[in-house]
Structures are given as structure tokens and as C-alpha cells.
């Protein structure tokens, strides 16, 4: 009996040990699987989305240690999202413009919108090298490689135009861009940044210090960390000359002392616009001013702001020949050279105490407003989302965490109570809903600079898009008026019409002091890199009578709400239509 009991006891002990071992093995296997899946998600975020994946994963998930939930949210619904929207529509049209209905409907739509992801272009990781590996200049580009030079972003020698392309930058692309703007040298840094100028940097660096491979061209050198690979663009200047845009700014009253106003001048018999523009371009000035046989180069200043032109009859002759302007007036032309007095930008040195939103409905000009704010204040703007196209073109705040408080303000299209109350104050940008809807529809089907095709406009997606987005335009404003703590309401049309006064209001709201010359520089560079070409725009009326009736009701609701909060109402051009 004792022997049988001993055997039973021994068996139970073995079983207990076996169960413990199996439990531990199960937990370890589960942990390893979890770690593997987490690593897979991060790798997919950084390398891009496979073509056979059902839902695209935005690149923002590739940040080490953080998977930011904002990157998984898209406040702009895709076309397929609109399937089943009928279930969200009220049967009575006269109830659709009710603020209560708009807010409740917007909440439902916002939840649906957030289920869809942004498809962002994956970026290549920076080239990591254990030691310098010599790179041959095998790229198919023209011009002489001048060497490797030191590069200080704050005190640049190549002070001309600056371009970024963190996916497709090549030596040829940089050279052509600089040549079209009449620069002699093209310098590349960090594998993706292009700088233009007419003077070589003074301090040369060791050749091996320029070790960054061009993002869009394997085997080519595009500078390094604080290093510039400089190439000559002289051979391309002649070919690019016919493509350069010399813009006629108008006839203006000449300042009292032209020599004091303009830093460079030239007196030339039989002076032509091309001669003066070429001279000023080489001197790296954005303005070419002609008075008779005199050519002056400079910038718009408070002494010569270019705000009030005069009748062209005051400037005798024509714009294309050796014209002679009157003694009191002069002809002004915009050269291909960029005004660089306001192009330097940086992150805030200390965290901002006030968390400011730059809020707008999609298609209302938020990117343009960010361009103006960044160049006026000298500080980057942030974003609640991540747009690779914007980051590639110099909006470096796109990759900074939106709550870092290192940016002057943060772009957002969100309009829920929780999202609004996170901010201490906000600039609320409002645009004509007709224009906003068309701009956002173009962006969805053709990107930031393109236009949707006739097929897109004639498809069933357009009516569904209007039905969904028109209510969002109204509820976005209504909710910010209701929950916003401190607001500055800016109408897109007013900003476009009176740029300097409105921009001053925005800068003062952000508690930043700027000079008049910097604001004039912003005005000189007002368009930025994301303005659609008006030449490609088609003149047609995409809105039906039913659409107009719906949108006009929303306009009246928003106008009434603005006036109820003691803000100016919507511009008159919004209605009737």
C-alpha cells in the first residue's frame, strides 16, 4: 500500500513539474510572437506598404518606440467611404442645416473617416556607413564637380533658392533647378537638399566628408552632414534661359534716391529687359528696375513696397525693348532669383507655453497659410498628420511630433470636442465652401498640384463627395466656435486680397514680432510650392441646383453662428450663387 502511494506521489510531482514547464514555455512563445509582430509592424511602416496588403499602413508607424495614433487617422474620407452614407442622411432637407444635426452627423462621419488610412510614400532611410566608401560621380549630369565644402545652414554661402526632395533628389535635378533661376552653382547636402548661388563657398572640406548618396540616384554624391557637394551649372544656364520667367510687376513711382534704395546698378546704352534681368540675377537680386538706360537691382522694402502701381502710361516705351521710363517712374520686373530674406526657418528653441492650432476644413488653404506663417515668423509649423509630399518640399515640422511644442502652430482638420480642447488657442481659416470642395476633390484624385479629370467629375463619387463634405465644412466651423478657447477667424479670401495686414494679425496672434522687410519678402514669395497652375484649370460648373441649395443653407448657418460670436460674417461672395 505504501509502495503504491509513493508511486502516485512521484507521478503527481512529475505532472506538476510538467505543467509548470508547459506554462512557462507557452508564455515565452507568446511573448516572442508578440515581439515579432510588433517588429513587423514597425518595419512595414518604415519600408512602405506591400502592394498586396489590404489596408495601407502609413509610414509614420515606422517611428522607433512609438506608433502614433494620429498617423492612423485620416480626416479626409476616401471615395469608397461614401458607400452607405445614405443611412446617415436626414430625410427632411430643411433640417440639414441645423447646427445640432450638423454636429451629430459630423461625429458619425468623423468616425467613419478615421477608419481609412493615408497612403504615404515611404522614404528611404539615411545612408549609414561604418567608414567612408569612395563614390564615383557616375550620374548623368552636366557641369563640373567643384568639390566638397563646409555648409552652415545659418550662414550659407549659396544664398539663393533652396529645394528639398527626400525621395528623388539627384544632381541633375538640382543643377537644372538652379540654372533655370539663373544661378551658376548648385550645392547638395544631406543627400536631399539643394542650394543655389553664384559664389563658391570659401571653406573647402576633405573629399571623403561628402559621403551622402543622393536619395534618387545611387552612386552620386550629394554632400553630407554640414557638407556641400558643389557642381557648376554654367553649361545649363544658356539652355535654361528661354525657360526663365521674368515677370512684369508694373509701373511704379521711383523712390527719391535710387542709389540708396537699390544695392546694385548698371548704366547701359540700349538697355533691354533681358540685359537688366540677367545682370540682377547674377547679383542674386529678385527685382530688376529700369529707368531709361539705368538698371537697378534690389528687394521690395518699406521705401519701395510695390503695393501701389501707377498707370502704365507714366512709363513710356514698351516692356520688351530698350524702353525709357519717365524720370519719376520706373518699370519693375521679377527676376528668376528667389527672395531669400525670409527663407530661413527653424524649430522653437524652447517649448511653446501656448499650444496653437491652425485649423481649417480640407481644401481651405491650410498649406498656403503654413507657408506664409513659416516665412513670416522664421519658425516651422507642425501637423496633426504626416504628409510626405509636404515634408519633401521643406515642411520639416511634418515629421516632428505634433505635441512636441517645438513648432509655432499645428495644422489640423479635426473638429471634435476633445480634439479642439487640446489646444489653448487657434487660427480658424475659413474658405468659400464651393472653392474648398473643388480643391479637396482635386487633391484626392490628382495630388497637391493636379486637377481631377472629367471622368472624376462626372462619376457618382462627386455627388457623394459633396453630400458628405459640405456638412463637414459647416460643422467644422460650428464646433470650433463652440469649443475653441481663443480664436482668430481668418477668411481665405481676405488673406489673399490683403496679404500683409491679415498676415500681421496672424503673426501678432502667435505672439511673434517680425520686421516690415520680412513681411515684404513673404509677399514677394507669396505662392509657395503648392499652388495649382491656373493655366490647367478648366472653366466649368460642377455643382447642380440641389448641391447649391444644400451648400447655401450651410453657408447661412455658419454666417449666423459667426455673427452670434461677434465675429465678422462670411464674405458676400459666398452667397448667392
Automatic annotation (TrEMBL):
GO terms for molecular function: sulfotransferase activity. It comes from the Eukaryota. Residues 142-234, 245-342 form the WSC domain. Transmembrane segments: none annotated. InterPro entries: P-loop_NTPase, Sialate-O-sulfotransferase, Sulfotransferase_dom, WSC_carb-bd. SUPFAM superfamilies: P-loop containing nucleoside triphosphate hydrolases (SSF52540). Pfam families: Sulfotransfer_1, WSC. Keywords: Repeat. PANTHER family: SIALATE:O-SULFOTRANSFERASE 1, WSCD FAMILY MEMBER CG9164. Belongs to the WSCD family. This is WSCD1 protein. It comes from Bombycilla garrulus. The lineage of its organism: Eukaryota, Metazoa, Chordata, Craniata, Vertebrata.
Amino acid at each position: 500500500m505504501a509502495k503504491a502511494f509513493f508511486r502516485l506521489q512521484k507521478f503527481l510531482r512529475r505532472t506538476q513539474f510538467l505543467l509548470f514547464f508547459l506554462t512557462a514555455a507557452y508564455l515565452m512563445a507568446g511573448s516572442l510572437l508578440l515581439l515579432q509582430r510588433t517588429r513587423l509592424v514597425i518595419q512595414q511602416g518604415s519600408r512602405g506598404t506591400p502592394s498586396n496588403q489590404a489596408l495601407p499602413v502609413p509610414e509614420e508607424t515606422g517611428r522607433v518606440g512609438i506608433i502614433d495614433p494620429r498617423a492612423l487617422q485620416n480626416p479626409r474620407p476616401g471615395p469608397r467611404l461614401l458607400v452607405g452614407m445614405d443611412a446617415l442622411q436626414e430625410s427632411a432637407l430643411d433640417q440639414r442645416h441645423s447646427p445640432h444635426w450638423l454636429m451629430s452627423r459630423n461625429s458619425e462621419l468623423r468616425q467613419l473617416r478615421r477608419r481609412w488610412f493615408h497612403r504615404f510614400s515611404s522614404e528611404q532611410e539615411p545612408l549609414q556607413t561604418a567608414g567612408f566608401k569612395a563614390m564615383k560621380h557616375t550620374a548623368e549630369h552636366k557641369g563640373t564637380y567643384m568639390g566638397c565644402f563646409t555648409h552652415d545652414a545659418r550662414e550659407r554661402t549659396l544664398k539663393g533658392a533652396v529645394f528639398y526632395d527626400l525621395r528623388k533628389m539627384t544632381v541633375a535635378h538640382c543643377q537644372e533647378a538652379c540654372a533655370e533661376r539663373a544661378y551658376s552653382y548648385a550645392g547638395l547636402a544631406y543627400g536631399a537638399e539643394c542650394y543655389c548661388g553664384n559664389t563658391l563657398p570659401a571653406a573647402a572640406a576633405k573629399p571623403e566628408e561628402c559621403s551622402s548618396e543622393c536619395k534618387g540616384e545611387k552612386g552620386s554624391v550629394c554632400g553630407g552632414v554640414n557638407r556641400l557637394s558643389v557642381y557648376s551649372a554654367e553649361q545649363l544656364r544658356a539652355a535654361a534661359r528661354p525657360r526663365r520667367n521674368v515677370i512684369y510687376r508694373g509701373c511704379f513711382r521711383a523712390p527719391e534716391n535710387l542709389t540708396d534704395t537699390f544695392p546694385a546698378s548698371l548704366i547701359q546704352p540700349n538697355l533691354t529687359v533681358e540685359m537688366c534681368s540677367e545682370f540682377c540675377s547674377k547679383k542674386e537680386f529678385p527685382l530688376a528696375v529700369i529707368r531709361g538706360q539705368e538698371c537697378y537691382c534690389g528687394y521690395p522694402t518699406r521705401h519701395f513696397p510695390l503695393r501701389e502701381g501707377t498707370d502704365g502710361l507714366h512709363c513710356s516705351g514698351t516692356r520688351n525693348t530698350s524702353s525709357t521710363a519717365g524720370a519719376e517712374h520706373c518699370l519693375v520686373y521679377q527676376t528668376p532669383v528667389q527672395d531669400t530674406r525670409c527663407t530661413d526657418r527653424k524649430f522653437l528653441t524652447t517649448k511653446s507655453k501656448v499650444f496653437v492650432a491652425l485649423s481649417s476644413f480640407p481644401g481651405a488653404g491650410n498649406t498656403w497659410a503654413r507657408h506664409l506663417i513659416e516665412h513670416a515668423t522664421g519658425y516651422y509649423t507642425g501637423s496633426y498628420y504626416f504628409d510626405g509630399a509636404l515634408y519633401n518640399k521643406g515642411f520639416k515640422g511634418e515629421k516632428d511630433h505634433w505635441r512636441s511644442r517645438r513648432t509655432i502652430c499645428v495644422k489640423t482638420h479635426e473638429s471634435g470636442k476633445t480634439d479642439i480642447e487640446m489646444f489653448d488657442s487657434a487660427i480658424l481659416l475659413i474658405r468659400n465652401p464651393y472653392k474648398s470642395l473643388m480643391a479637396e476633390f482635386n487633391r484626392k484624385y490628382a495630388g497637391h498640384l493636379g486637377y481631377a479629370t472629367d471622368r472624376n467629375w462626372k462619376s457618382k463619387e462627386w455627388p457623394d463627395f459633396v453630400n458628405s463634405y459640405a456638412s463637414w465644412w459647416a460643422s467644422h466651423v460650428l464646433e470650433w466656435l463652440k469649443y475653441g478657447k481663443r480664436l482668430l477667424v481668418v477668411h481665405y479670401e481676405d488673406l489673399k486680397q490683403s496679404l500683409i495686414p491679415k498676415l500681421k494679425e496672424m503673426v501678432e496672434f502667435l505672439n511673434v514680432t517680425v520686421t516690415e522687410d520680412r513681411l515684404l519678402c513673404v509677399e514677394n514669395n507669396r505662392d509657395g510650392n503648392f499652388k495649382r497652375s491656373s493655366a490647367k484649370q478648366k472653366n466649368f460648373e460642377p455643382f447642380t441646383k440641389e448641391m447649391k441649395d444644400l451648400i447655401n443653407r450651410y453657408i447661412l448657418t455658419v454666417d449666423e453662428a459667426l455673427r452670434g460670436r461677434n465675429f465678422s460674417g462670411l464674405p458676400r461672395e459666398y452667397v448667392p450663387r
